Hints:
Blueprint: E1 2-10, H1 25-28, H2 37-50, E2 54-62, H3 71-86, E3 92-97, H4 104-112, E4 117-123, H5 127-132, H6 139-151, E5 155-162, H7 169-181, E6 186-191, E7 194-195, H8 199-206, H9 214-230, E8 234-238, E9 251-252, H10 261-282, H11 288-293, E10 298-303, H12 308-312, H13 317-325, E11 330-335, E12 344-347
Parallel strand pairs: 1-2, 2-3, 3-4, 4-5, 5-6, 6-8, 10-11
Antiparallel strand pairs: 7-9, 10-12
Amino acid sequence: MxxxxxxxxxxxxxxxxxxCVFCNQRxxxxxxxxxxxxxxxxxxxxxxxxxxxxxxVEMAFFGGSFTGLPMEEQSEYLSVAKEYxxxxxxxxxxxxxxxxxxxxxxxxxxxxHGVDVIELGVQSFDPKVLAASKRGHRVEDxxxxxxxxxxxxxxxxxxxxxxxxxxxxxxxIFSAKEAVALNPETARLYPxxxxxxxxxxxxxxxxxxxxxxxxxAVFRAKEMYxxxxxxxxxxxxxxxxSSDLIGPSNSLTGATFHPAFRQLVEGDLAREIIENELxxxxxxxxxxxxxxxxxxxxxxxxxxxxDFSNMIGNSKRNKIYFNNKYPNLKFIYKIxxxxxxxxxxxxx
Length: 348
């Protein structure tokens, strides 16, 4: 049985008058125009026809700042979602919004319509990054919004971006640690992608903004991933999917966009864990006798079933890495169903 499915309802740029340097919401979601309650029902019914034996189904409002909509419009959309929830066709209602569009009146209305999950587009906890990105809200707004969301007993999600103007590895690590301190249930990590018809696009062409290269983006995301996952936070997305963009001709995605960005990050994490376990066995200080006692030079690496492709690495990059770095060892890769996600072990 599939554990989780989301019915996505996109409200392109609605509810958000702010123009962040990186954002052209109509371009990002590949959708434009208003959405009606009839549209929501059609989308929901179409998705539900394809969903069988799913443990949890969510209807999720994405693409804009939902709570920036007029209250009447929020209630109109949410009434449809609540109708489906009351009928047992969906299990949860999920929405995303900005930290500065949260107050007690808004949260009371969301609670009355059965909303379960609120994701905040935090992007960064560094005031300089927020200002350079023209986010239009303060770090203090984030703390206040998270506190209120927790008080009203919603599930909290935090979205963070990597490589915004003014960003640094130190700022990214700080943001991950601050996110942990706010105790969200879920998190998303997005490397910045430069979209056409945005201020960031113009800045890139003018040379005042430089995109991260792939290695740097993956490394930063991996370090943030470790901080969040070690705190028990469910990281539900790492990087944009190809379906989130119209196509490469409409963006300067550069090295920061990869259709398997999450696998790049989790693959690098797998390689790091395996190599740390491998080091004691290949340390130059080991005596010849001890090396002999370790067997025939074969290393068997184990992962959980879900992590096997991460252990191998995208395009077999981990296999290639270990073969090149340790030519005297033979590596074999196997599954151990007893291992949990992001756990690896090796045997000699």
